[in-house]
Amino acid sequence: MKQKKKKIAFVIGALTPGGAERVISVLSNELIEKFEVTIITFVKSDPFYPLDSRIEVVSCFNKIDKPKSLIGSLKLNYALTKKLSKIVKDQRIDLLIGFITSANVLTTIAAKLNRIPCLISERNDPLKKSIPKLWVILRKFVYPMANHLVVQTKKVKIIYETIVKPEKITILPNPISPKLSESRNSSTPREKIILSVGRLNDDKRQDKIIKAFQKLNLKEWKLLLIGDGPNKKKLITLINKSSLSHEVEILSGIKDVGKFYNKSSLFVFTSKAEGFPNVLLEAMHFGLPCISTDCNYGPSDLITNGKNGFLVPVNDQEALILKMSQLINDENLKTQFSIEARKTTENYMSKIVTTKWESLILNHIK
Asked: How far, in Å, CA of 202 to CA of 345, rounded?
């Protein structure tokens, strides 16, 4: 008699474009062969990344209005926890996996209410000042109650060891999407394109790239920014003011990002804070020569400065301009970075990472 598959569920705010959402989608597509997989979202959204038809997506609410006060926030999170707990009970979930701070806190509480194990996965810079104080306090008290915490880098693990026992923390990198790997095409001619991918917000600082591009005054080159977010209008204004509307383009809602990784010649990433930069990993996987800010956390786990890419200090605009110029004008260095970058990403292939997740899940499931 065939043994019935155990039921696991990922928990996240929504399945919109983003690093954590991509990771959940990749892991779900891989783990569906061994488990019954459900993705529980706080608010209903069409999955941005492709999902196996066997994966069930369940939402707590169709729509959520942003709370205007602390009381409103507490009421909303109480309602979310209650709904999440009911879904877990109704679906007879065996193990919960939270992604990102707020989902981690509510996932842990819902798991405790249903007396099932839970894993939580922290994706953000733990020292990030923009995380609301309420969540920082809750994180401190609730995270130790989870069965296991997954982080992405050694530096993040050290920070969380102050609140969670070291033996309950595992470092697991992000997996590269198999579909993305399949779209690699080394025969695609590289065009004179500088590429940057990421949410258009204050953390990613795309304005630094635009200003560097203007300063370099590159002939025949284009700058492509792929992403969407609250700073889009501001960045468009900067592009127009800099008289770069013919050279710089912002593309939003792009699903086939592999096409741009294949044809670009340089990848630039100027984030001031990261959990782990998926897009930098992806760009390196496509053999793109990369320049990244040496922000906490992630870029230094991927790039060995001068060997497989360049790291520049956060806020050092002159260093960014210098390294962009150096790489644009040195074909041998571009080739070296391209070969070494590809090698670096081999340990992040989805099968390797998923096997580690599977092992962790089986350690905690009855």
From this structure: 27
Average pLDDT over all residues of the chain: 92
Range of the domain at 125: 7-175+349-364
| CA distance linking residue 122 with residue 290, whole number of Å | 25
Looking at the structure, tell me whether residues 83 and 132 fall in a common domain: yes
- Report if residue 125 sits inside a domain: yes
Query: For the whole prediction, is pTM greater than 0.90?
Result: no
pLDDT of residue 2: 60
If asked whether residues 237 and 152 sit together in one domain, one would say: no
- pLDDT one-digit tens code per residue, 290-344: 999 998 888 998 999 999 999 999 999 999 999 999 999 999 999 999 999 999 9
Q: Total domain count for the chain?
A: 2
Distances in Å between the Cα of 174 and the Cα atoms of 52, 217, 309, 322 are 19, 36, 19, 30
- Domain harbouring 105, CATH code: 3.40.50.2000
- Tell which residue, 228, 226, 225, 198, has the closest CA to residue 212: 225
Among candidate residues 173, 171, 133, 155, the one with its CA nearest the CA of residue 296 = 155
CB 4 within 8 A of CB 33: no
pLDDT tens string 182-223: 899 988 999 999 999 999 998 899 999 999 999 999 889 999
Task: Evaluate whether 11 touches 95 at the Cβ level (below 8 Å).
Answer: no
If asked whether residues 252 and 105 sit together in one domain, one would say no
The DSSP line for 72-86 is: HHHHHHHHHHHHHHH
**193 with 136, same domain?**
no
